[in-house]
Amino acid sequence: LALLSDLRRALETGRIEVHYQAQASFRDERVVGVEALARWRHHTRGAISPETFVKLAESSGLMPRLTDYILDVALRQAAQWWRSGYGVPIAVNVSLRDIENPGFTELVARKLAQHRVRPEALRLEIAERVLVGDAQTARTTLLGLSKMGVRLSLDDFGTGYASLLTLRRLPFDEIKIDRSFVSGLGYDTDDAAIVRSTIDLAHSLGLRVVAEGVEDPATWSALEGYGCDEAQGWLVSKALPAGEICALLAERV
Ligand code: G
Ligand code: G
Ligand code: MN
Ligand code: NA
């Protein structure tokens, strides 16, 4: 409970930071996107993992506030990068709580207008595991966002139960293969089979594929051979503060 009120205060006083992790194209190794990742350095407890405070926000009703905050920070940053000539689409994680809110599409439209960012420059990531069941409001929200031009990513793919039907019914244009499959590529033949067939399946449905957790050149080569589109992971960059990732953007966009 103390942590919850500290989180609320951190959001009010702007003490949640946003770091950015680059995504690179396999084709030419250029940076083609960044993911915004929330970071919280608690004044006495030190770094609190996003898993902890995202879960806390989710269970306490604070999620809309967190998402609103991250969208503001990330879109302000995106607008600045575009003005500087090295703009790339920026990805923001959202939760089921967000997309179940009937006003969410409108909120995103308002924020894009406020920060003067094109809808195509924003990507929203939704974890696969949250999309079980038939959440009709969530579906309506995703369709509205997609119609507006915002791009949608199915995150942590492989960890949930999204069926082929889900992929067909919802307007995703990208999946992100969870790093638990990617990290074993070098030695686990099952992981290799899963990753290869996931990429083929996604492509045949017209979806682009991002591999998460690419940490070494051998994994990069394997994924390149499977026809994967983009890599995110420590080999490309860690999640870095805006001031540090912009050097990479200036050089590799
Ligand atoms: O890379 P990292 O350890 O920061 O991320 C841990 C988890 O927290 C990931 O599942 C990521 O999607 C989630 N996460 C990080 N930042 C945000 C955020 O701003 N909003 C939401 N909903 N989830 C986030
Ligand atoms: O939103 P998502 O669940 O995809 O969050 C990505 C998580 O993965 C974050 O916690 C991030 O810090 C972490 N991460 C990103 N790249 C790597 C990597 O190459 N290796 C490992 N082990 N973790 C990574
Ligand atoms: Mn993500
Ligand atoms: Na993920």
Automatic annotation (TrEMBL):
List residues of the EAL domain: 1-253
The protein's name is: Cyclic Di-GMP phosphodiesterase RmdB
- Species assigned in the record: Catenulispora yoronensis
